[in-house]
Amino acid sequence: MGNDKPPQLQDGKDYLRWKREVEIWVLGTSAAASKQAALCVLSIKDEKARDFATRLSHTELKKAEGLKYLLEEMDKFYKEDSTQCIFLAIEELEKFRRGKLTMTEYIAEFHRKVNQINELLPVPPATGGEAPPVNPIPGRNGHS
Q1: Which of 45, 61, 77, 94 counts the most CB atoms within 10 A of its CB?
Q2: Which of 112, 120, 48 is CA-nearest to residue 79?
Q3: Rounded CA gap, 23 and 71, in Å?
Q4: Residue 116 to residue 98: CA distance in whole angstroms
């Protein structure tokens, strides 16, 4: 199809985004399924994540289901650091300022950052599979 280079994982805090981009990349790549995991491992620039990924079973990585294996193992790797990721995302939201953005751009970016936090929050078992959303705007959804 053209571009057979998978997305790069530059920084661990962007793992969920990278994972979604890889899932989209799979839809458009002409790379053989048995090579997709290897291509993705080589696209990881985050040093700790790449070290982890290169230690995974090469036998599993070169199978047709190798990419699924890689993503499952990377999920485990990043789950251990999920609290730190949540903290960093909240800190980034707190530091976010409008600057030279238009109001529309500012609101869109603000909502993107809030959604990122919501994706990182653990799912409490009593909610039926959904984490309660972060709602930083007072007066919305009955909050004051």
Answers
A1: 61
A2: 120
A3: 10
A4: 18
Q: Are 32 and 18 in contact (CB under 8 A)?
A: no
What is the rounded end-to-end Cα distance, in angstroms, of the chain?
Answer: 51
CA dist., res. 98 & res. 91, Å (int): 16
Q: What is the DSSP string of 33-63?
A: HHHHHHHHHHTB-SHHHHHHHHTS-HHHHTS
Question: Residue 92: how many CA atoms within 13 Å on its side-chain side?
Answer: 17
d(CA 42, CA 62): 13
Q: With contact defined as beta carbons under 8 Å apart, do 11 and 50 qualify? A: no
Can you give the pTM of this predicted structure? 0.62
Taking the C-alpha atoms of residue 59 and residue 84, their distance in angstroms, rounded to an integer, is 32
Q: Which two tokens stand for residue 38?
A: 């290897």
* Closest of 39, 46, 37, 38 to residue 17, by C-alpha: 46
pLDDT tens, position by position, 36-88: 999 999 999 999 999 999 999 999 999 999 999 999 999 888 875 667 778 87
Q: What is the DSSP letter of 9?
A: B
